[in-house]
Specification:
Layout: H1 3-26, H2 29-44, H3 54-76, H4 82-87, H5 94-104, H6 106-113, H7 117-129, H8 133-140, H9 144-159, H10 165-183, H11 186-192, E1 193-201, H12 203-206, E2 212-215, H13 217-226, H14 228-231, E3 234-239, E4 242-247, E5 255-262, E6 265-272, H15 275-280, E7 283-284
Parallel strand pairs: 1-6
Antiparallel strand pairs: 1-2, 3-4, 3-7, 4-5, 5-6
Helix pairs in contact: 1-2, 1-3, 2-3, 3-7, 3-8, 7-9, 8-9, 10-11, 10-13
Length: 286
Amino acid sequence: MDEKAWLAEQFEENRPRLRSVAYRMLGSLSEAEDAVQETWLRLDGVDSRAIDSLPAWLTTVVSRQCLNQLRTRERRREDSLDAQVFERGDDFDLEAEAQLADSVGLALLVVLDSLGPAERIAFVLHDMFAVPFEDIAVMLDRTPAAVRQIASRARRRVRGEQPTADVERSRRAVEAYLAAARGGDFEALLQLLDPDVVLQADAAVSGAPAPVVLRGVRSVSKGALLASERARATQVALVDGAPALVLAPRGRLEVVLTFTFDGDRITAIDVVGDPGRLRALEISVF
């Protein structure tokens, strides 16, 4: 086997891992595929004899491609990547994107999207793929000690505070609410919601000129069932330190549901879709 054929074979063996790394950094399958393809083009133009460890070399190159994209994204201050994704036309695989997002966790993608480029690179490579800080330091042009601090800061933002017993109890209630909404279980919703529960959805969610308010357990339960399809793109997360639900198709935050409790019963639900209010929320994963 000649050198070029050997490199191609080795690259294909590493492709799934490279795509996994790139997707967690970029949150977009199409952009991840672009970064992986650019990595192959770089590999095709180097002397393999100068590479000590091909997997490590490939990880470094794809990470640098992702870092460049993240920095470009920051400079442009783009509001959303959704338009970029759909501009790709027939090449965009919605089902593949959804499956990959689900395997990573929508809530995690939302939190990663809030990190700066260096934080995201350091956290993904070290905490998710066990890349040593010394190797990441070369990519970021920082010292290993500085990269360790960057990763620690990112880790705190991603994971938030450790949940207390009360938070765990609320989390179970929110998970049960989500399961009932997804499954269309009206009776389960009646058991979870306080008889006088109030749901308020801001105008960005409802599309109405003013916020929409639903009052009473039956009205709120029916509203939850009507949103059962959207619930499939929803996951539990910590929002401002409390269990909540985040709706994030392809990892892009669109709606947050926060809850108020009296014991195990849900007494109020606030549905937030306004971009300004969403940006003010601190989201982390359990």
